Amino acid sequence: MTTPDLTWGRPAPAMPPLPAAPPATGAAPQPPGAFTGVFPAASPQPPAAPTGARLADGGAATRSGQFTPEAARQDMPILQRPVNGRPLIWLDNGATTQKPRQVIETLASFYATANSNIHRGAHTLAREATDLYEGSRAAVAGFLGAPSPDTVVITRGTTEAVNLVAQTWGRANLGPGDEILVSTLEHHSNIVPWQMIAKERRARVVPIPLLPDGSIDQNAYADLLSCRTQLVAISHASNVLGTVPPVREMTALAHRYGAKVLVDGAQAVAHFPVDVQDLDADFYAFSGHKLYGPTGIGALFAKPEILAAMPPWQGGGNMIESVGFDEVTYAPVPHRFEAGTGHISGVVGLKTAIDWLTSFDRSAVAAYETVLLGYAQQALATVPGLEILGAAPEKIAVLTFTLAGHDPMAVARHLDQAGIAVRAGHHCAQPSLRHYGLEAAARASLALYNTAEEVDELVASLHQLQAQGG
Questions:
Q1: What is the DSSP letter of 263?
Q2: What does the DSSP 8-state code read for residue 282?
Q3: Could you give the CA distance from residue 105 to residue 96 in angstroms, rounded to a whole number?
Q4: Is 213 in contact with 392 (CB distance < 8 Å)?
Q5: Are 331 and 141 in contact (CB under 8 A)?
Q6: Coil, strand, or helix at residue 397?
Q7: Ramachandran class of 98: left when φ > 0, alpha when ψ lies in -120 to 50, beta otherwise
């Protein structure tokens, strides 16, 4: 296997005019700093950080807050390589986002200049690495609107975060007859951990049904809540239907019954700002690799009083104060939940990803993605036999679809020959697909660096496939 030639490139095409977003999405007027269709000059590339201390700035180029998709594209080396002789069009962002050069350079610079284990080290590199690690925790707290860095636990991603809550809070608080309400929108990582702990604790997982448009049935949800409800698990944005539920309102209703709420933010944090205190979420989890950061890293927010009462999960180094054969004293939160040597470079890279994303005006990014979603919905509607799943009034730029006469995997292979990457299968969200009587579908998921021209290429390739016949 040869290494891709990242020096290949092509001039960026001009952005075609986009129509107004469909009325259902309710795009707000563009704020100052919003996308205007005018591309600024490329930001100068900063030199690689020569020391651990320099890494702390995240390596992000200084911006005025203005956003254009081209400004984001210029930071993505992988978008400059060809696939099957065609320019890469990355429409698999729901599975993982591509990484800006700033994140790539941060990872290399950390290992070249600041690599060390963290905490308790007396030498310079240990202090620098610890400062970077804890500085990244603080950045995550700020990104989520958390009240303190001590409310943020570093995890390997959303899946580990949900399992941590299930195995600590769940084991301590669930009992026979208790109920866990889980929306039908959920990714398997927010279903299976609850099934496992429910079986152990003799509790019960109760699904919250969907309406035909892919929204959560709020009347059914209200009816399901009771004094038996101990936890509600909901995604902030669906990875299959794109649905953005009214999380704040659902959380407020759950709290009336004394239930806790865990929010899976894996698909949300890259698309719109999140404030966990405004949501009043008890737990909030996300993954770095869906946020333009490294794989194998993520975070869990928990309210401080809940986190303080949770017992440890995994045992080992870094999560203790003192160990003897007669007694063990655990470290304070959040460290008691971070056993062993973590993905230190990934934590540092996550801060850079946050710095990179927040260097753009987030409202402008959200407005652009809303308009691009509307453009894609209208364009895909011209393909004979294509049906998009999910039409909730509020949704992120996820387009899961079927194409009459074609298996979803065959659709993905055909698009791949044109350099277009989409995902096909059950997307680790089988209950969502079964709501529509399906076991598999194709999915094109958009990000801030995607363009209308790329949507046009997707649509043209699907027209070609339909013209060829089944």
A1: E
A2: S
A3: 19
A4: yes
A5: no
A6: coil
A7: beta
Q: How many CB atoms lie under 10 A from the CB of residue 43? A: 15
Q: pTM of whole model > 0.70?
A: yes
DSSP assignment of 55-71: HTTTTPPP--B---HHH
In the block, tokens 């109920």 appear at 179
* Identified catalytic residue from 126, 253, 428, 460: 428
Closest residue by Cα to residue 91 from 325, 379, 424: 424
CB of 205 closer than 8 Å to CB of 198 = yes
Annotation marks residue 227 as catalytic: no
With beta carbons less than 8 A apart as the criterion, state whether 264 and 186 touch: yes
Are 303 and 280 in contact by the 8 Å Cβ rule? The answer is no
- Position 8, amino acid: W
Find where tokens 């000059």 sit. Answer: 41
Residue labelled with tokens 């195995």: 167
In tens digits, the chain (470 residues) has pLDDT values of 333 332 233 333 333 343 333 333 333 333 334 333 322 333 333 333 334 445 655 444 446 679 999 999 999 999 999 999 999 999 999 999 999 999 999 999 999 999 999 998 789 999 999 999 999 999 999 999 999 999 999 999 999 999 999 999 999 999 999 999 999 999 999 999 999 999 999 999 999 999 999 999 999 999 999 999 999 999 999 999 999 999 999 999 999 999 999 999 999 999 999 999 999 999 999 999 999 999 999 999 999 999 999 999 999 988 989 999 999 999 999 999 999 999 999 999 999 999 999 999 999 999 999 999 999 999 999 999 999 999 999 999 999 999 999 999 999 999 999 999 999 999 999 999 999 999 999 999 999 999 999 999 999 999 999 998 75
Residue 1 makes CB contacts below 8 A (sequence gap 6+) with none
Return the residue matching tokens 């962002």.
93
From CA 444, how far away is CA 458, in angstroms rounded? Answer: 9
With CA atoms as reference, report the closest residue to 117 among 352, 298, 340: 340
Total residues found in the chain within this entry: 470
Helix, strand or coil, per DSSP, at residue 72: helix
Angle, helix 124-144 to helix 344-358, in steps of 10 degrees: 40
Cα separation, 243 vs 451, whole angstroms: 22
**CA gap 284, 265 in Å, rounded:** 6
